[in-house]
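Hi there, hope your week has been kind to you so far. Do you reckon you could talk me through the fold, stretch by stretch? I've dropped the whole record in just underneath, so have a look:
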Amino acid sequence: MERRRVVRSLVVGIPLFVVTAAFLTVIAAPGDSQTPAYKSWLFTGQNLYTTGSSVGIGTPTPGAALEIQSTNPAEQLEVRNPATGSQAHSYIAITTGDTGPGIYNGLVLGYNAGGLAFLNSREYAPLALATNDIERFRITADGNIGIGTSSPLRLLHLSSGGVGSAIARIEGGPTGHAYLEFYQGTTDRGFVGWDAASGSAMRLVNKDNGPVAFSTTGQERMRIDSVGKVGIGTTSPDRLLHLQGGSLRINHSIAGGAAQILLSNPDNTDPASDAYMLVEVGGTSAGDPLTWYAIPGGSNWVTGIDNSDAGKFKTAFGTAFGTNDFLVIDTSGNVGIGTTTPQSALEVEGYIQLDLTAGAPPAADCDSAGEEGRMVFDPDADFLYICSGASGWVAK
């Protein structure tokens, strides 16, 4: 038959010890008022020893007030309350002279009747966890949690402790999401995270009918409103993209590439007549700054600076300069129509057709110096009228 020794509790209602083999079980003893005969403890083999004020279980030389040794992990320490239902509580209390005795003081480890396993500091003092003799985690008396810091300033405070970076990781399963959700009370307000179901998208989501705003140095810089309009420098964008108080710069980092802004209306009822306007800086070398106007299946016009032709300003028919350059202004201000090398203020290659008039033109159209040089042709009289300013028209 198994030999065991019962050691009664020092305090009524606190579990007592039952020693069997190399195993110590603590069970409840409600209402027990007997005084333990702890001085008469006996030992069986090497199971229980007393050395003055120290107790050894499994060792004859305890190094502390209570030391338990066993090579069998199943033969360690159990605190058990055999009661069921509302009385099924089991606790271990660690107290000092400053905290007072009992399970309502100090540090309590236990399992309550509601099925909750807990570690509870009953005092107005922090609770800390450490590894390698270094504190890693702390809950302050007010409930703030610090990881890497012993003085958390928020409900959750992560710190690298002055070394390296403080990084929090949220990891989903192989096909799952990884989200950080935000609630106001029980109302779901939004989330930020990785959405595996939508093309592996990173998302910043406001679930309310409100904007998402981005700030630096405590000042809002960009906003996406509830209907998707983006404002930069404004909190009330009135277009899909609204910039205020600054300028827009688009760079292309690849040689020979192009930086572009495309304006289009693809909802036309006839796609062949959709209108496009493209503002572009691109091409070889420094590239050509130009604006391209196009109707698919129809005409294309380009206007801008031809960087490969001495920086001349051109209007050309087609999608690029160099073939149908109809209007050219060189850097000296000479204008060429039909020629890319104008030698005068205006040089026209081809015909010039003047306005026609029947009889002499009105005198009021040639009575000041600002009107000098006007010309009009009278096909009936075969006269070319030239305005000489205040002297009036001269017929040739």
